[in-house]
Write a structure and sequence with these properties.
Blueprint lengths: L2 E5 L5 H10 L3 E5 L3 H9 L3 E2 L3 H5 L4 E4 L4 H9 L4 H4 L5 E4 L5 H13 L3 E4 L2 E2 L1 H7 L2 E7 L1 H11 L3 E8 L3 H30 L3 H9 L6 H11 L9 H18 L4 H18 L7 H8 L3 H10 L1
Parallel strand pairs: 1-2, 1-4, 2-3, 4-5, 5-6, 8-9
Antiparallel strand pairs: 6-8, 7-8
The structure holds nicotinamide-adenine-dinucleotide (NAD).
């Protein structure tokens, strides 16, 4: 079993960490807010009060942080992972960040004798709890093979997709698909409700045909029930669409539907709904359809 340091015990990091503990690993956690460290200790892990203390004896360091600047600060910054980790440690960044951030981290880590992987995840909080994440991994193939047993405690679909930064590129594509699908499911739900059909039967029959998809399966009940607690926050998906649109431009390709989804997500956020689940794109469709009462009701309780 492996000594693992885990930094970032939020919505995703906390259950991922618990699965590593349950798999028998010795896990030391660190988080900016101490309450989350206490929750890990209650679940059988150990707590640290600094990055340095968490990573000092680790064989594997995992980060699960909100955004690129957070990863840069935690890994590259003063008192960060690269200052304190031992030579030869595997550094797995599971956060969703810019591909160039992952490449910069990989270069700095390699200079320090640390073995980096970018390993963003998909599946949401439910899959994190169930240890059933999809994990897309960029980096050296031998490092991927060495890290695979650790990743298998957190996910079920785990694939190496290329050199450093490639995991983030695949995750950017993932986020285009998810945002576009939520938007179309939202449009369908608003349309069906306005047309007066039996909404729940409509969703069941749609899910059984070619229109079936994971958003219909996992999110539509919450959308119909007006439950938008995250889950995956609008703020984070807005960040991810910024990453995806920039990466697509850098690759020289057009992503018109993704750009539209990015604008709708940005608008939802600008209207004060950044802390809601991304399935709240439904509220945007209602607003565009003149159904402002339901939007206002949700914003009042936000
Ligand atoms: P979150 O905000 O719930 O968790 C992030 C945690 O990192 C917080 O507990 C925060 O206190 C901690 N943190 C931030 N800066 C820190 C620092 N400098 N030192 C120590 N701790 C620090 O976010 P999340 O939903 O768990 O998402 C984490 C990452 O995973 C993001 O990049 C997100 O885009 C991605 N992701 C999220 C989901 C989801 O459904 N929530 C799904 C897939 C991927």
């Amino acid at each position: 079993m492996t000594d693992i340091a885990f930094i970032g015990l939020g919505v995703m990091g906390a259950p991922m960490c618990r699965n590593l503990v349950d798999a028998g690993h010795d896990v030391v956690g660190f988080n900016r807010s101490p309450a989350r460290v206490e929750a890990l200790v209650a679940a059988g892990g150990r707590g640290a009060d600094s990055i340095a203390a968490a990573v000092r004896d680790a064989d594997v360091v995992i980060t699960m942080l909100p955004d690129s600047p957070d990863v840069e600060a935690v890994v590259l910054g003063d008192g960060g992972v690269l200052e304190s980790a031992r030579d030869g440690v595997i550094l797995i960044d599971c956060s969703t960040v810019r591909p160039e951030t992952s490449r910069a981290v990989a270069e700095a880590a390699a200079r320090r004798g640390i073995r980096p992987l970018d390993a963003p995840v998909s599946g949401g909080e439910g899959a994190a709890i169930d240890g059933a994440l999809s994990i897309m991994v960029g980096g050296e193939p031998d490092v991927f093979e060495a890290a695979k047993p650790i990743l298998e405690a957190m996910g079920t679909t785990i694939l190496h997709v290329g050199e450093a930064g490639s995991g983030q590129t695949v995750k950017a594509a993932n986020q285009l698909i998810v945002a576009g699908t939520i938007e179309l499911v939202s449009e369908a739900l608003v349309f069906l409700r306005a047309s007066g059909v039996d909404l729940e039967s409509a969703v069941r029959v749609l899910a059984g045909g070619l229109a079936g998809n994971a958003i219909l399966d996992r999110k539509s009940a919450g959308m119909i029930g007006r439950r938008f607690e995250p889950g995956f926050r609008v703020d984070l998906h807005h960040k991810d669409l910024g990453i995806a649109l920039t990466a697509a431009r850098d690759a020289g390709v057009a992503v018109p539907m993704g750009a539209l989804a990015g604008s709708l997500m940005a608008s939802l956020r600008a209207q004060g709904s950044g802390s809601l689940d991304h399935s709240a794109l439904l509220l945007q469709v209602e607003r565009l359809s003149g159904l402002t009462n339901e939007l206002d009701a949700v914003r009042r309780s936000d």
